[in-house]
Amino acid sequence: MEANNSEIFLETKGTAYLGVVENGKIILGNAGIEFQYKNPHRGKNIFFSWKSIKSAEVDVSISGRLGQQFSLILDTQAKVRFSSKDSGPILKRVAEYVGKENIVRAPSLLDPFRRAFKR
C-alpha cells in the first residue's frame, strides 16, 4: 500500500519487529502510520492506514510506567510490534484515530498466575 500522508504530525526513530529487527523511522500522518526502513535496500516503506488499525497494545511496567514497546492490531487480526523512545506521543496520536478505549495494556508474563490466584 502506498503512503499517502499529506500531513506529518510526528516523525521519530523506531524499531519494527517484522520477523527480524528493523531500525528506521516511525512516521505518523493524517492518513496513517508509516515505517521507513533505515536501509533503503530493504524495500518500500510499510504503511498502515488509520482505518486498518483496530487497536493498540502497550507494554506497561509493574510500577505503571509506559514501556517503549507497543503493538498495532490490524483488522486482519495481524499484530505488528514496534518500539520507540517516543511511545507516549505516538500512542496519544494513535488514540485520536482509533479511540482511547482501543488502547489496551498488553498481557504480561505474570497475568496467567494472577488470574489463577484470583479464583
UniProtKB/TrEMBL annotation:
UniProt superkingdom: Bacteria
InterPro entries: DUF956 (IPR010360)
Listed Pfam families: DUF956
Protein name as annotated: Regulator of the mannose operon, ManO
Organism expressing this protein natively: Lactococcus cremoris subsp. cremoris GE214
Source taxonomy: Bacteria, Bacillati, Bacillota, Bacilli, Lactobacillales
